[in-house]
Design a protein that fits this description.
The chain has helices spanning 2-14, 55-65, 70-83, 93-105; strands at 42-48, 85-92, 110-114. With 117 residues, the protein is of the alpha+beta class. Helix 2 (55-65) crosses helix 3 (70-83). The protein is rod-shaped.
Length: 117
Amino acid sequence: MAEKETEQGSNQSSGDSGTATAKPKRAPKKNPQKKPPQSLPPYKVLLHNDDKNEIGFVVRTIVELTPLNEDRAKQCTVEANDTGLALLLMTHKERAELYQEQFTSKGLTVTIEPAEK
């Protein structure tokens, strides 16, 4: 029995040689050249005249929904009232669509269209 224990002990210690295998070196990853971000195409947000909303309500709504101040909102409202249409602002399509939905929910008519380049 003693011989078996000795053989097992020597077999166990010889199983681990202690040599490490080196991992193959990889070429460093090259970062793809990033293109500078392109600006989104601009869209016009146009306010249409209507006969059902008061000027004060239209001005307050413009100030509430857009970054325009009260003076600019008044100018746009008067222009829409006099000519039938006024350019409120220009922005990218997604935001223009949001403005359109918000103005529509307040009972005002706003359309969007691509700005000419």
